[in-house]
Amino acid sequence: MVPQPPRATDRRVDRQPRQPNHQPFVHDAQGNFILRSSDDQDIWLSFDHPTDTVLPSMRFLMSYKAQVIAHLVAWKGPDDPSSGDFSCTGDPTSPDLQFVTLNKARVYCRIIVWDGVSVSGRTFLTNTSSILYQTVVNSGDEFSFIFTLSDNSPFVRLMLDYTGKLKALAWDNHSMSWTVINERPNNACDLYGSCGPFGYCDFTEAIPTCQCFDGFEPVDNSNSFKGYQRTQALKCRKQSHFTSFPGMKVPDMFLHVRNRSLDDCAAECINNCSCTAYAYANLSSGGAMADLSRCLVWSGELIDAQKTTVGENLYLRLANSPVDKKPGPVKIVLPIISCLLLLACIVFSWMYKYRGKWGKKKNQKKLMLGYISTSNSLEGKNTEFPCFSYEDILSGTKSFADSNLLGRGGFGKVYKGTLEGGNEVAVKRLSKSSGQGTLEFKNEVVLIAKLQHKNLVRLLGCCTHEDEKLLIYEYLANKSLDAFLFDHARKHVLDWLTRFKIIKGIARGLLYLHQDSRLTIIHRDLKASNILLDMEMTPKISDFGMARIFGANQNHANTTRVVGTYGYMSPEYAMGGTFSVKSDAYSFGVLLLEIVSGLKISSAQLKMEFCSLISYAWRLWEEGKATELVDSFIAASCPLHEVVRCIHVGLLCVQDHPNDRPLMSSVMFMLENKSAMLPPPKHPVYFALGNPKGEQASENTSSSNAMSITMLKGR
Asked: How far is CA 574 from CA 141, 441, 596, 702, in A?
């Protein structure tokens, strides 16, 4: 039988002075709605039954006799107050130690691991400085949480959002609106177990990233979700030792051992060969609890650890490294003399060898600058740009080893490299056999050298060596969007919030290229494989080899050399060689439909009667079944009104005539303003794709004959 918590009438309740006449319904000063009986007894209080919000001075009863009591339950959507999938509560396995957010029954984010401090304060800066005090009361049977505000602070409330974020919101009297002053989770690294076994999220960095403990290495360098493994096998007792890692939010899946001192807690783990870590805290105020200590021990893997500025000491068991015997004087002097002689030889060799190398580097840089200046430079000026040596690139990529290959583009291959100082980069090696390689190389260097935007990939430098043409980019660990979107085993990482973030990020990047940069730039090859993702799943547009610059008064151009990827090319470009900012808008529309559906433009999963994803999306839209297009991985948890709006925007972008398609500025407005009215989309042109593998076309004559236009009519 589950123990029942004490009723409101069984404990002290602060209330306003009673009125002379009986009032069955009363609101007190803190916003507590109270139901009273005819004899003025409180029989029901709204504070005892929270929904998705906690107010100042509201007592949130997390557990009673080790049983979880109170829950915050999020809305199902922004305008749907019915119960959603997300809830906040005490951890069912340890309600007096952890406060977590659940997605249905699965842990989504661990909000707090209680450290035993019963009263703590934190300062948040809004329009005025305010202090939020949190009070934790542990009386043995009851475990509760209350937060209060300092005098003259703006009103603050805690709310569990329908997206699963627990937000602290402050009222801003100037804007007459709620502003977010803190939220959890606040990035992908903050999600439960996102760094894998023996990994931790480092919140002391400007951008939180996944790291591993000393003595561990990545299981897979290209995928942090797989976690980390020991560099040296673990052995017991005398062949292992414990290392302290300060400032840690302790991992999950611990065992709470009561009534232990620090030495007892350490012995508990040291004497148990299966114990991998322990943590200890002196509880400064334990309420009515007799045990004023907290000893936590772990067996097996450590999951969901974080490094913060206010964490605790985590003691982790590591294997002992071999220890040499203490050397005598002779063993010290001889190595020093040998090192000095070796150093002298190295210096003389360096002086002889690198005098020539510096000259060679200087000539190489002159060659590079001259190479770039022969192309259309920005604003009539040569582009001064960092040049890397070919030897450094060879060393960093292990001579372009297949094990370092990240992918293949239209004009070459991309390799992962590690340069001096341990900096990881992506090296694009233009194909020697491609007659278009030289033009694309010049074009990409000149364009990206001056483009700076968080949604564009950053070019770090370039290199030429004989026939080799190399571009060096920032390395993005998550590679490209298609590696997640079209991979059944990995697409679960792309929940709807992440997909919507990617859609808006791509739109912002295109808006910068079309309108906000100093020149109008048409990308001409926007597709899922050219969208790279950083550790925060922020999208970055890449591969500017086929991009074109427009003049101040130019709004379209024609070419006899149609390049791009079938399926993403607009009709006027594929058939007539005419391109403009509306051509990129068409490619964006195709990409948006792919992100929503999880299907490729020419997916084999489509029914035989549909020649492309566009025709399939239009048929569902026309029949009022747009929600059937949504990827099954997100269909159950995404806000359908938001997804349908994205499908609507995608269909507007893939309309036949360029004038019917919106500019990217209008696309951004439609995505970010949910109340804005959208025009109905027109029946799009369908392409029977002549190049199903997504390869790039190089000549207009061949590409135009490789496709046909088919108009489908609804039945």
From this structure: 72, 23, 25, 11
What type of residue is 410?
G
pLDDT band at 340 (very low <50, low <70, confident <90, very high): confident
Euclidean distance between CA atoms 580 and 556, whole angstroms: 5
Q: What is the torsional sign of CA 664, 666, 669, 675?
A: negative
For residue 58, CA distances in Å to 30, 50, 54, 184, 416 come to 8, 9, 6, 20, 54
Domains identified in the chain and CATH numbers = 8-12+25-186 (no CATH), 210-319 (no CATH), 356-474 (3.30.200.20), 482-710 (1.10.510.10)
Please confirm, yes or no, whether 91 is among the known catalytic residues. no
Give me the residue label for tokens 């990529």.
397
- The answer for residues whose C-beta is within 8 angstroms of residue 458's C-beta and 6 or more apart is 448, 452, 473, 474, 540
Its sign, for the CA torsion 472, 474, 476, 482, is: negative
Burial 514-528 (b: 16+ CB within 10 A, else e): beebeebbbbbbbbb
Higher pLDDT, 598 or 95: 598
3 state SS of 683? coil
CA angle 568, 572, 578 (to 5 degrees): 105
d(CA 496, CA 634): 6
Burial of 25 (0-12, 13-18, 19+ CB in 10 A): exposed
User: How far is residue 276's CA from residue 301's CA, in Å, rounded to a whole number?
Assistant: 8
State whether residue 455 is helix, strand or coil: coil
User: What is the strand order of the sheet 60-64 is part of?
Assistant: 67-68, 60-64, 142-149, 129-138, 119-125
Give Cα 499 distance to the centre of its chain.
10
Considering 495, 525, 543, 584, which one is annotated as catalytic? 525
Give percent of the chain with pLDDT exceeding 70. Answer: 75
Strands of 240-350 (E only): list them.
240-249, 255-257, 275-282, 293-299, 305-307, 312-319
Give the C-alpha separation, 604 to 488, whole Å. 14
Lookup: tokens for 319 = 């294997």
Cα–Cα distance for residue pair 30/582, rounded to 1 Å: 55
* Spatial contact of 590 and 684, defined as CB atoms under 8 Å apart: no
Residue 215 neighbours by CB distance under 10 Å:
17
Kind and range of the H or E run holding 429: strand 424-430
CA 462 to CA 173: how far, in whole Å?
A: 52
Q: How confident is the model over 182-214, as pLDDT tens digits?
A: 888 988 888 999 899 999 999 888 888 888 898
Two structure tokens written together for 280 = 């200890």
Tell me the two tokens of residue 318: 């590591």
Q: What is the DSSP letter of 480?
A: B
Rounded to whole angstroms, the Cα distance separating 430 from 410 reads: 9
CB 208 within 8 A of CB 189: yes
Whole-model pTM: value is 0.47
